[in-house]
Amino acid sequence: MTGRPYGGRDPQQRQRERRDRLLAAALELYGTAGYNPTTIADVCRTAGVAPAHFYELFGSREELLRVLYDEIVTTTFDAVLAAVADQSVDPAVRVRAGLTAYCDHLLTDPRRARVQCIEVVGVSAEMEAHRRAVIRQYAEFLAAELNAINDRRPNPAEPDPASDALLATAVVGGVNEAMIDWLLLDERPPVSALLSGLTLMLTAVADARLNP
């Protein structure tokens, strides 16, 4: 049985709406008060969803966090990919465009940045493994972009995949740590100031790697 329509909406549509409201509530609460002090009851109350309906959609508070985190990561990565899609543009320009898209997408709504960079850290062994996999995904993307820059050079540097992977991971970690510091400041400087510093770091790393 699929259930009867109610208020002009079928059960599947109502369930999708509840899911969207729960994720919006989680973004608000996890992105402001934080994950640890926020209970399922808090999320349900903010979303206007009964606890019984919560458990139809999510098995636990941590599962809700993971789904929210994955949505933030996916939309952020999509923004980065769109920014670097033009393969005719100089790779160095594309890398800067990708970094700009990354910062803009997360920091125009700092709740997204807080969830991605702070609230998922140390939640559980499973969540930590998931978070590390996302970091590797970003690092692999960055390493590929640096290799594209290298390939266009008249005298490309010798490839070193293992070192490049570690270097890219270090850069991704540096970007995240800078973003965390920005989020925790009582008086935040403009996003443009953060982006300028991160661009300098990325440019210096790329120059050192490609001009050994």
Automatic annotation (TrEMBL):
Coiled coil (residue ranges): none
HTH tetR-type domain residues: 16-76
Presence of the UniProt keyword DNA-binding in the record: yes
DNA-binding region extent: 39-58
Pfam families in the cross-refs: TetR_N
DNA-binding recorded as keyword: yes
InterPro entries reported in the protein's UniProt record: Homeodomain-like_sf, HTH-type_TetR-like_transc_reg, HTH_TetR, Tet_transcr_reg_TetR-rel_C_sf
Key words of the record: DNA-binding
GO MF, any single term: DNA-binding transcription factor activity
Superkingdom of origin: Bacteria
Entry-linked PANTHER family: HTH-TYPE TRANSCRIPTIONAL REGULATOR PKSA, HTH-TYPE TRANSCRIPTIONAL REGULATOR RUTR
Protein name: HTH-type transcriptional regulator EthR
Protein species of origin: Actinomadura rubteroloni
Lineage: Bacteria, Bacillati, Actinomycetota, Actinomycetes, Streptosporangiales
Name of encoding gene: ethR_3
